[in-house]
Amino acid sequence: MTEKLKIKLSIADRIYPLTIDPSQEEGLRKAAKNIDQLAKKFEQNYAVRDKQDVLAMCALQFASKIEQGGIERKEDTLEVTERLKALDQLVASKMSVR
Fold it and tell me: Rounded to whole angstroms, what are the CA distances from 91 to 75, 80, 81, 82, 95?
């Protein structure tokens, strides 16, 4: 059984203590850093004063990237599937000629 690790992450000027698996530490620290950087960017560019609004904008930005990635992967999968079907038909037609 793996020992749990206690860490503190700072997001939008607040400290969040967490107990995590050691394997999660790097990802969580990077995520917290990305959120913090994006929050600062929103505060500077849009003169947003309320931290909750800034964090909601961050959440929307990250969630939309995930959703868009899923849409693009689905489109890629459909394209690959169509190409494989075409290749399969081509091979089948060449095999039946003999």
Answer: 24, 16, 15, 14, 6
Share of the chain above pLDDT 70, in %: 97
CA distance to 34, 40, 98, per residue, from 30 (Å): 6, 15, 59
pLDDT digits (tens, 9 = 90+) for 7-30: 999 998 899 999 999 999 999 999
Phi then psi for residue 38, to 5 deg, are: -65, -40
pTM above 0.70, yes or no: no
Q: Which two tokens stand for residue 87?
A: 């290749």
52 to each of 16, 34, 42, 66, 97, how far by Cα in Å? 15, 16, 12, 21, 67
Q: Which residues contact 20 (CB under 8 A, 6 or more apart)?
A: 4, 5, 7, 28
Mean pLDDT throughout 30-44?
Answer: 93
Nearest to 32 by CA among 55, 50, 1, 52: 55
